[in-house]
Structure formats: structure tokens, C-alpha cells
Amino acid sequence: MGLGGSTALAPWGELPRNIFSRFLRDSVHISRRETSAIVNDVVAIVEEILGAVEAKDGRFDRRFHRSGSYIENLKVSAPDEFDFLVPLKGISLLYPGGWYPGLEAPPDQSYVAVIINRSEANHDLQDWLQRYRLLLPKNVMTTFRTKVRDAVSSRQDPNISLRRLQQGTPAVTISVPIRGLEVSVDLVPFIENPLSQWMFEWPRQGAWPSQSKVQKIKEAGVDLVAKHPLYWRYSFSRIERILLESIDADGGHRRNALRALKKVHEDYWKPKFGKDLVSYHLKMILFWACESFPQAKEWQDPVESFMRLVVYLERFLKDGVLPHYFLGPQVNLFKAEAGKLQEIHMAVVKFKSSPVDYLQRRQVLGI
Helix 211-220 vs helix 237-244: angle between axes, to the nearest 10 degrees? Predict the structure, then answer.
């Protein structure tokens, strides 16, 4: 996808390669050795909790999938957040639909209602089915949270706490103190690869990703998560992980470019703009850039690779639209109002004008 538009973008200030390399070394790269010890502790706790949940309610599988920035090797801050996908069991045939009379319309085309044929649903699923034979996300989330709460309580560990369930968040979150950090663990119940066939227009024509990777992605399939009370949302989390696997096997600097951009975001933009600009937006920008620049030679220079992602971010913010990488322009990932997006755009322009000040953590005013 090209950048589009005819308006000129803001000019770049000087960004010497040695300063960018030092930024990667000193500020972006975290110790995998240190983090792996925390991961082992987190996994042990999650295994125990999900084992207890499955013992009480067999609809939730104790065998989880790890997700998120750590497993994707994109983590650029303290190892204090981890994500785990928890499959629902006993659901064999799903019929994704649009929306139905009597129900509010879904927010956009990334959300679908799910119908289960009652004659094909096992007994355990019956109490989750409502009118229109819908499997309602809010019912699944309420049940899952109750089971996780009971499992946490049974541990009798006052240090582990359950956070309040937030609407629009498809996760039950527990807080665990580990090795001096307050670690947040998201447990996300999901429906794993429920579709009988690939029903998306992606991949588009082009050289990226490779056909072998596309085949692997289609075999993995698209999942559903409970991000809305009534509608399930398509989740491409496992697919994104496949796209990131060996992404720089050709000697490119795509991953480091994204990690550097994430670090700038966490240090300077996230504190002010919160959920209006999140790391998921930045990951989608990397995928769009990879599709537009599929050749290995286009990612050989680390500074140019980083600058490319910043330019893409600037353009998408200027246009006010970040198309969903897999679902296309009918789904805009930016949810903030135009005025807020323009404010973020100006912050990116300021960064471009003097990137060295940011990367060397000099006093940066007006952000």
C-alpha cells in the first residue's frame, strides 16, 4: 500500500547512524536472559490457574498460546506485561454472521456475530446460547472471569490480585509481583480457527509475504476474541506472530526499526496520548511498509528502515486513517477524533525535526 496523498511531509533533521545504533544498544534492547526468568515464573502461575479453571469448567482449555510483544521479540521496556490466549473447547461448527434485528449493529466489519446450531452444540455450551442461537461474548467473559477468580482465591496467595473487568477488553487480567516487578498477565479466552475456509481478501498481490508463509498463515487460520458484549472480533494475533518469524532472515532491519519506534512511542507519545496511539498501530504500520517495500535491499540500512516507519506513521496520522492490514480500508484502526490525531501528528513532526534530541534523551520541550 503506497502512502497516497499529494501533501508534502515534514522534513527530517539529522540522524547519524552512530547515534541510532547507540539508541538501539542502550535503550531498546532488553536482556532476554533476565526476562526469561520472569517468563518462567509467570508461565508456572498461569499453568496452575488455567489447570484449576479447566477442572471446574471443561469449556476452557488449560493449553494456552503465548501472545504479545515478548513472544514476538518486540518488547522494549520492563518485562511486566504478558498475554496468554485460552482456547474454548467443544465448539466445532460456527456460522459467523453480520447483525440481527433486535441487536445493535457491530462497531465495524472486524466484528461478527456467531451462531451455533443447537443440534450440533454439546450440553456444556447450552447455557451460553441465547436468542438467535448466538454465542455471546459477554456470557463467555463473565463465566471465565468467575472461574479465574475462584482459581486465584483457591491459591490463597494475597499477592496475586484480579483486576476489574473492563468493557471492550477481551482479557481477564491478574497482577503478580515477581522479582521486584508488578507483572500484569492477560488471559484471553478465544475461539481458535473456527472458520471452515479462508474468507478474507488478504493477501493482496505482491511479493510480501512469501507464498510459503501465506500458506502457513492460512493453515493457522483466524481466531475470534470477546472484545464486544454481543459480537466477536476477528483476531490475527497468531498470524501476526507468523509474519514476524524470521522477518529479517535476509539481513534486514525491520524488527529493530519497529522496536526503535515503539521505544520512542513509549517514552514520549504514550504518556500523553494513551490509547489514541498504541503499539498495535505501529506493528500494523510495519506490515504495510513491508508490503510496499518487499525487497531485502530496501531494509539493509537500519536508519533508513526506522525513518521509513516514522514516515508511514506521519502519513497515516495526517490522513486520519490507518487501514486494518488484513481487513483493508473498511476498518480504520484509528479510533480517536480528528483533532486528537492531528495533535499526535504534530508530535511526530516535532520528532522528525530533531530526532537526535529524542534518542539522546535531551530535554525536549512542548511534547
Answer: 150
Looking from the CA of 36 toward its CB, the CA atoms found within 13 Å total 3
pLDDT (tens digit, 9 = 90+) per residue, 163-212? 887 767 899 999 999 988 899 999 999 999 988 788 899 999 999 999 99
Structure confidence by residue, pLDDT tens digits, 135-159: 889 999 999 999 999 999 998 888 8
Residue 188's SS3 state is strand
Q: Which three cell numbers stand for residue 20?
A: 541510532
- DSSP per-residue letters across 263-314: HHIIIIIHHHHGGGS-HHHHHHHHHHHHHHS-SGGGGSSHHHHHHHHHHHHH
For 215, residues 6+ apart whose C-beta sits below 8 A from its C-beta are none
pLDDT of residue 98: 64
228: its cell numbers:
464486544
Sheet strands (E) in 88-170: 95-97, 111-115, 161-162
* Side chain identity at residue 290, one-letter code: C
Cβ pair 258, 138 in contact under 8 A = no
CATH 1.10.1410.40 domain extents, the chain: 1-30+246-367
Phi and psi dihedrals of 84, rounded to 5?
Answer: -135, 130
- CATH C-level class of 1-30+246-367: mainly alpha
Look at residue 5 and tell me whether its pLDDT is greater than 70. Answer: no
Torsion of CA 285, 289, 291, 293, to 10 degrees: -170
Rounded CA separation 55/334 (Å): 40
Residues of the chain with CATH 3.30.460.90: 31-93+137-210+222-235
Q: What is the spatial distance between Cα 268 and Cα 265, in angstroms, rounded to a whole number?
A: 5
Q: Which CATH class is domain 31-93+137-210+222-235?
A: alpha beta
CA distance 33 to 31: 5
Specify whether the CB–CB gap between 316 and 336 falls below 8 A: no
Question: Would strands 65-67 and 232-235 be described as parallel, antiparallel, or unpaired?
Answer: unpaired
